[in-house]
Design goal:
Strand order of the largest sheet: 5-2-1-6-7-11-10
Order of helices and strands: EHEEEEEHEHEHEEEHEE
Number of strands: 13
Number of helices: 5
Structural class: alpha/beta
CATH architecture: 3-Layer(aba) Sandwich
Radius of gyration: 16 Å
CATH topology: Rossmann fold
Number of domains: 1
Largest sheet: 7 strands, mixed
Shape: globular
């Protein structure tokens, strides 16, 4: 059986910490991944420089069963990038797992992939309306102001089928849930004081 990989899409000002646990769990689980970038290098908000494995045009979708997206300090340079939209549209929820954290679900929204999906994003809907999105487009979104439950708890991640979304502070659980969706074997206690092994 063919070994499937994860595609990781990076862009300038991506948030490295938000995908750090997810990448560690991919490594623990022996899951290979390729880094895709618009340009040869992507520079994180922390100052980390990453060289891409492949360009967006080199994506062979049949080699991948999953996609990992970090958030970004400022999407203004890429939100309308058709190359990114076309890249994202190749990932079908019916047979691909998509993990998107912080503000990155907005890229999926812009690419038209979230019409029938429930998701959360670390944004404020009213501010996105000012950017040209409609409330109808965002009807299934829980924004940063809508995460508190009636019992006072706060949700930091949301799963709808093969879509995992989270806010940045939930990056540890985001990584763990991504590993579970991919059926990877890993030690969650590496990231918190827990004794169980996730399978």
């Amino acid at each position: 059986m063919k070994e499937m990989k994860t595609a990781v899409l990076l862009f300038d000002l991506f948030s490295n910490y938000e995908i750090s646990v997810a990448l560690s769990i991919l490594s623990q689980g022996g899951k290979k991944y390729d880094v895709f970038c618009i340009n040869e290098y992507a520079h994180s908000e922390e100052g980390l420089t990453v060289k891409r494995s492949k360009s967006l045009e080199e994506l062979c979708i049949d080699d991948y069963d999953s996609l990992l997206l970090p958030g970004c300090m400022n999407f203004s340079g890429i939100i309308d990038n058709e190359d990114i939209h076309n890249f994202l549209r190749q990932f079908d929820f019916s047979d691909k797992v998509i993990a998107s954290i912080s503000s990155s679900p907005i890229l999926l929204l812009k690419a038209g992939l979230l019409k029938n999906k429930k998701y959360m994003a670390a944004v404020v809907k009213e501010e996105l309306v000012e950017e040209g999105f409609t409330m109808d487009q965002m009807s299934n979104m829980r924004d940063i102001t809508e995460l508190k439950n009636d019992d006072g708890t706060v949700d930091t991640f949301l799963i709808d089928g093969n879509l995992l979304t989270a806010i940045g502070v939930g990056f540890i659980q985001f990584g763990i849930e991504f590993g579970k969706l991919l059926n990877l074997k890993f030690e969650s206690r590496w990231y918190r004081n827990r004794e169980e092994t996730c399978i």
